[in-house]
Design goal:
The complex is a heterodimer of chains A (356) and B (359).
Chain A (H helix, E strand, L loop, with lengths): L2 H20 L3 E6 L9 H16 L3 E6 L6 H12 L4 E4 L5 H10 L4 E5 L8 E6 L1 H15 L4 E6 L4 H17 L4 E6 L6 H13 L4 E4 L5 H9 L2 E6 L10 E7 L2 H13 L6 E4 L6 E3 L8 H15 L10 E2 L5 E3 L7 H5 L8 E2 L5
Parallel strand pairs in A: 1-2, 1-3, 3-4, 4-5, 5-11, 6-7, 6-8, 7-15, 8-9, 9-10
Antiparallel strand pairs in A: 10-12, 13-14
Chain B lengths: L1 E5 L5 H25 L4 H10 L5 H26 L7 H18 L8 H27 L3 H21 L33 H19 L1 H11 L1 H6 L4 H28 L10 H11 L4 H25 L4 H22 E5 L10
Antiparallel strand pairs in B: 1-2
Classes of the chains: A alpha/beta (356), B mainly alpha (359).
Chain lengths: 356, 359
């Protein structure tokens, strides 16, 4: 190669590189623990990703990897995003916490946002939603609508996030209907339609006439529809899987948060933060209420939602007693975030013992 | 009518040629698949098979991903040769992680050179102990080792889940189900700075060489082979079927256990509810893809690992769904099995001539 052609090639490369830099879109990567078609957790993150693309157009480029195992694999996937020049990476499962931190250390210029974790560094922020606020609303509805006074609850893992949900639900349930009790079945999986279906059938056989779930598949809602009982969807509006059974769902809406964070990266103002948003932030939204909910129950539900949004009511407002009858929160007090984040006990009204 | 007719014997060259042909056919049909999805087939194949390897980190990742697959498959292949079907390498892997990880947590405050070797030995013993159950039940009560070893996988997974939800939970971890992060003394050293390539990859290589030596150069390997092909002949020669069952489960259980502790002491660095995305099961495929031969298994493990890395690369680079990984792995197996059939049988058109059978 002559000196001239070499120079020309270099100049061309620089020119192309420079142009690309000027119009470079912000590259945003997403790591999902489940399939995007789970109609639950990962699905909602992916809906928000699509809204990002719609909102920013050419200014962002997004990509995702789905069904990433929470073991050795996740670090590689996160690393691939960082290595390929992504500016911002959302890692959307608790089990990605330590891998995210390891990669973040290796790529200090890349920004990371880890959902539901508690470790932060200069380039790792965390975010989560106060879904337990929604649990208080569906607990209120369940308290009014149960006839058998048995509620079935399908839960994945006994981690604080799930414990908060069960407890917030039960507190609201029994505030309306002190005789009602909650039966919990653990599936040991976030997404396992087969096991969720079995759990739903078992709970109905044990007398539950309303199902609530913290797992991600619509299988329990389908079972409720088949068996003629009621159910609450999880993470997304699951009404099409059980138009009669589905009363409402607690919807995760990540779009406002993702939009704000990407905008911060574009503006150069991104800083790692710890965000825990509820109704007031728009992260937690109730799906449309089923018409079969009586007007007075609907009013009670909406009142609960409103009271939580405006801070007049806290789902963990004393007095709260645990299963053994010990007072955990005194009258007039509410549980602080630190206690909420490490919750590992059942309130009164939940049947059975914690798997330990 | 199409029917298959047995060939006298398979051509020697094709026994090893079949996997190569299968890979070639997978590439051709993979290209067609990409074209049908509207991508430039060559570019897409490049992203799938080459882009994961375009950096030192990527090459190291290939080895990291292949390590547990090779460790498990090498052990399984020894049993498979002897007609001993250990389907539960996944459970033995988990128990290896539990036993070795338990040592790491018990010696959490101890900083000594002996911590890591102790963990490795404990990991192997854990896997062997878990493999001993189906081996004992098989040799004592003639239970099916396939069922017992498979079922014990779920028991192992629940045992690990119980430990990380309960007694071994990180005390500073907000009750989340995972153990403390292992200390440096309990973490495998990195062989290649800036990557995740850890000492476990060297263990896998050593296992390949060791298994090759045992299979090809020792009397033990010969006994296993004879008993696998014709148990009766082996019996006449005085080879013990029970002994082969125990050997198979101890070797495969030990290596699966080693792969488990290598995963948690290497890339993961702590105990979690799940430590393996099914390496023990994928290893069965790897063992057959590699023709039950240690070197073949090494190559098969690398190829399988590459298919995972490639699947991630096309998701990030081209926005293709995860299912592409599964389709590629499925095609690979399909073509391999198809080639196998065609090596051992020839296809004949038309029905077999009916013979007059005197009644």
């Amino acid at each position: 190669m002559s000196r001239f052609t070499r120079f020309a090639a270099m100049a061309a490369a620089l020119l192309i590189g420079g142009q690309a830099l000027a119009a470079d879109p912000v590259k945003v990567g997403f790591v999902y623990v489940g399939p995007v078609g789970d109609h639950g957790w990962s699905y909602e993150h992916d809906q928000a990703r699509k809204q990002l693309e719609a909102h920013f157009g050419d200014k962002v480029k997004t990509a995702f990897v789905e069904n990433v195992a929470e073991g050795a694999d996740s670090e590689r996937v996160i690393n691939q995003f960082a290595q390929q020049g992504f500016d911002l990476v959302f890692t959307t499962s608790f089990g990605f916490m330590n891998p995210t931190l390891k990669v973040a250390k290796r790529f200090p210029k890349v920004k990371f946002e880890h959902a539901t974790g508690y470790k932060r560094t200069d380039n790792v922020g965390t975010y989560a939603a106060r879904f337990y606020e929604g649990r208080a609303v569906i607990g209120t509805i369940a308290g009014h609508m149960t006839k058998s006074n048995v509620i079935g609850y399908i839960a994945p893992f006994p981690i604080p996030e799930v414990m908060r949900g069960i407890n917030a639900f039960t507190i609201a349930l029994r505030a309306v209907n002190p005789k009602a009790e909650v039966k919990v079945i653990w599936t040991n999986s976030w997404y396992d339609p087969g096991r969720e279906r079995e759990a739903a059938e078992t709970l109905i056989a044990q007398g539950a006439d309303i199902l609530s779930q913290h797992t991600d598949s619509p299988a329990p809602v389908q079972v409720a529809q088949e068996k003629g009982v009621l159910a609450f969807g999880q993470a997304s509006d699951m009404s099409r899987f059980g138009p009669d059974a589905h009363l409402t769902a607690i919807v995760d809406d990540w779009a406002p948060y993702y939009t704000a964070r990407v905008q911060a990266v574009i503006d150069g103002t991104w800083k790692p933060a710890d965000t825990w948003g509820g109704f007031d932030s728009g992260m937690v939204v109730m799906a449309p209420y089923n018409d079969r909910i009586p007007a007075d129950v609907l009013a009670a539900a909406e009142q609960m939602e409103d009271a939580i949004r405006t801070g007049k009511h806290h789902p963990f407002q004393g007095p709260i007693t645990n299963q053994a009858g010990e007072v955990m929160v005194k009258d007039g007090e509410t549980l602080g975030d630190d206690k909420l984040l490490s919750m590992d006990w059942y309130v009164q009204g939940v049947q059975g013992r914690l798997p330990n | 009518m199409i029917r298959l007719e047995a060939r006298g014997h398979a051509a020697a060259g094709w026994v090893y040629g079949a996997p190569v042909l299968a890979v070639g056919l997978t590439l051709v049909f993979g290209a067609a698949l990409f074209a049908a999805l509207g991508f430039d087939p060559l570019e897409a194949l490049g992203v799938f098979f080459l882009s994961p390897l375009n950096s030192a980190y990527g090459i190291a990742e290939l080895a990291v991903k292949a390590t547990p697959l090779a460790l498990c498959a090498v052990g399984l292949a020894i049993g498979f040769r002897g007609n001993v079907w250990n389907i539960g390498a996944e459970g033995q892997l988990v128990m290896g992680a539990v036993a070795g990880g338990g040592v790491a947590l018990a010696l959490y405050d101890v900083d000594g050179w002996f911590v890591l070797p102790l963990m490795m030995v404990a990991g192997m013993l854990g896997g062997m102990a878990w493999g001993a159950i189906p081996a004992f039940l098989k040799t004592r009560f003639h239970t099916s080792e396939i069922l017992v070893s498979l079922m014990l996988t779920y028991v192992a997974a629940l045992a690990l889940s119980w430990l990380v939800h309960g007694p071994w939970r990180d005390p500073e971890g907000f009750n989340f189900p995972e153990s403390r992060l292992f200390h440096d003394a309990a973490t495998l050293p990195i062989l290649w700075e800036g990557t995740r390539l850890h000492l476990g990859a060297a263990f896998a290589l050593a296992a390949v060489v060791g298994a090759w030596f045992v299979v090809a150069r020792t009397f033990i390997g010969f006994q296993v082979k004879v008993l696998g092909m014709t148990p009766q002949a082996g019996g006449y020669a005085g080879f013990s079927q029970k002994w082969v069952v125990w050997l198979a489960f101890m070797v495969s259980g030990g290596l699966a256990g080693l792969s488990g502790i290598v995963e948690v002491a290497g890339p993961i660095g702590q105990l979690q509810p799940t430590v393996s995305p099914g390496y023990g099961f994928t290893a069965i495929i790897v063992a057959f893809l590699g023709r039950l031969h240690p070197v073949g298994i090494l190559l098969a493990a690398l190829l399988m690992a590459l298919s995972y890395l490639g699947g991630e690369a096309v998701q990030i680079g081209l926005g293709l769904p995860l299912a592409v990984t599964g389709v590629f792995q499925g095609m690979l197996l399909f073509f391999l099995l198809a080639c196998d059939i065609l090596i051992r049988y020839r296809v004949r058109l038309g029905g077999k001539r009916r013979r007059e059978v005197p009644s």
